[in-house]
Amino acid sequence: MMDGNKLNELRELVEFLKANEIAEFDMEQDDLKVRIKFAGEPAVAAPAGGFDMAHLSRLMASAPAAAVPAVAAAASAPVPAAEVEEKLHEVKSPIVGTFYESPSPGAPAFVKVGDQVEVGQVLCIVEAMKLMNEIESDVAGEVVKRIAASGQPVEYGQPLFAIKAR
């Protein structure tokens, strides 16, 4: 159960995300995992794993305060999503760099959602200091989600793909 302060922060977060037209947002802090996804919104995503409550508080301090309808459903909705995601294997970036889904601009992606992959199969490239590092799958299974966007900077340990292992 969330305390009143956390629930108020979550309400403010939802309004902040709506006001800034952010369509998808993930956050993990201690034992709390929140995933917010607005249907029908533009595909602008917040940085994955890059926020904590203190950072959000600073960001939201500049957002206008508004009356917020109850978001108890939003607070409870992420729980089933978190349970489903726990069963997926995340392929994480081993280095800091820039994520690319294809070997060159205009070329088809190494893999797409729904593809079956094998251990050692190249999933993407992470460029670091002009070196192209091929990132390989460490499990066999189906690509369920591409988490990073092509051309996006990625951090060490940041999830790139979610794979349903077989």
Automatic annotation (TrEMBL):
Pfam family, one: Biotin_lipoyl
Record-level Gene Ontology MF annotations: acetyl-CoA carboxylase activity
Gene3D superfamilies: 2.40.50.100
GO cellular component: acetyl-CoA carboxylase complex
Record-annotated Lipoyl-binding domain positions: 88-164
Sorted UniProt keywords: Biotin, Fatty acid biosynthesis, Fatty acid metabolism, Lipid biosynthesis, Lipid metabolism
NCBIfam families from the UniProt entry: BCCP
Protein name according to UniProt: Biotin carboxyl carrier protein of acetyl-CoA carboxylase
